[in-house]
From TrEMBL:
<dbReference type="GO" id="GO:0032933">
    <property type="term" value="P:SREBP signaling pathway"/>
</dbReference>
<keyword id="KW-0753">Steroid metabolism</keyword>
<dbReference type="Pfam" id="PF07281">
    <property type="entry name" value="INSIG"/>
</dbReference>
<dbReference type="InterPro" id="IPR025929">
    <property type="entry name" value="INSIG_fam"/>
</dbReference>
<keyword id="KW-0153">Cholesterol metabolism</keyword>
<feature type="transmembrane region" description="Helical">
    <location>
        <begin position="165"/>
        <end position="186"/>
    </location>
</feature>
<keyword id="KW-0472">Membrane</keyword>
<feature type="transmembrane region" description="Helical">
    <location>
        <begin position="50"/>
        <end position="70"/>
    </location>
</feature>
<keyword id="KW-1133">Transmembrane helix</keyword>
<protein>
    <recommendedName>
        <fullName>Insulin-induced gene protein</fullName>
    </recommendedName>
</protein>
<dbReference type="GO" id="GO:0008289">
    <property type="term" value="F:lipid binding"/>
</dbReference>
<comment type="subunit">
    <text>Interacts with SCAP; interaction is direct and only takes place in the presence of sterols; it prevents interaction between SCAP and the coat protein complex II (COPII). Associates with the SCAP-SREBP complex (composed of SCAP and SREBF1/SREBP1 or SREBF2/SREBP2); association is mediated via its interaction with SCAP and only takes place in the presence of sterols. Interaction with SCAP is mutually exclusive with PAQR3.</text>
</comment>
<keyword id="KW-0443">Lipid metabolism</keyword>
<dbReference type="GO" id="GO:0006695">
    <property type="term" value="P:cholesterol biosynthetic process"/>
</dbReference>
<comment type="function">
    <text>Mediates feedback control of cholesterol synthesis.</text>
</comment>
<keyword id="KW-0812">Transmembrane</keyword>
<keyword id="KW-0256">Endoplasmic reticulum</keyword>
Length: 202
């Protein structure tokens, strides 16, 4: 049916967004070393474990489809800043927050984490402001941090200078803002169908 076809299209778009963001953000995280070895720029883009981008893509598809479903279930259609220009600004701010985590030098990691937490909440307030968005963002941050912690603990993945158990303390902030960003993309994609076919169940 056209509904299933549209659902598949949305899933593929969200998966692609997740993969691209994973590659871009990984490049930002390793960029401090890039200046020392400029000939390895291409290598650093794919220096992350091969399975990370597909996992991020799958997570983006799930989160992006979940947001409009939760909105519909709660009977709270998301009407705040529903246009593509706002969504693209949200993506830009999310990338900026990641850039800050990689490039800015703070006196200590607590200061960095608090700054990124404030920026992440600012992103939610500026582009979302829904209870479902806040709740899902916090849930995503908790679950994603827990999964990352387990992966690092089991030696599957590692961070260069962990400061919070086995990971970086600012990671939950990145996951939170990422969830809000992908959720906004998912909502916008769902709204495209609403506008072209009238209100349909998500």
């Amino acid at each position: 049916t056209s509904w299933h076809h549209h659902l598949l299209q949305r899933s593929l778009v969200l998966f692609s967004v997740g993969v691209v963001l994973a590659l871009v953000l990984n490049l930002l995280q390793v960029q401090r070393n890039v200046t020392l070895f400029p000939e390895e720029v291409i290598a650093t883009i794919f220096s992350s474990a091969w399975w990370v981008p597909p996992c991020c893509g799958t997570a983006a598809a799930v989160v992006g489809l979940l947001y409009p479903c939760i909105d519909s279930h709660l009977g709270e259609p998301h009407k705040f800043k529903r246009e593509w220009a706002s969504v693209m600004r949200c993506v830009a701010v999310f990338v900026g927050i990641n850039h800050a985590s990689a490039k800015l030098d703070f006196a200590n990691n607590v200061q960095l984490s608090l700054t990124l937490a404030a920026l992440s909440l600012g992103l939610w307030w500026t582009f979302d402001r829904s209870r479902s968005g806040l709740g899902l963002g916090i849930t995503i941050a908790f679950l994603a941090t827990l999964i990352t912690q387990l992966l690092v603990y089991n030696g599957v993945y590692q961070y260069t200078s962990p400061d919070f158990l086995y990971i970086r303390s600012w990671l939950p902030c990145i996951f939170f803002s990422g969830g809000v960003t992908v959720g906004n993309i998912g909502r916008q994609l769902a709204m495209v169908r609403e506008l072209s076919h009238g209100r349909q169940p998500l």
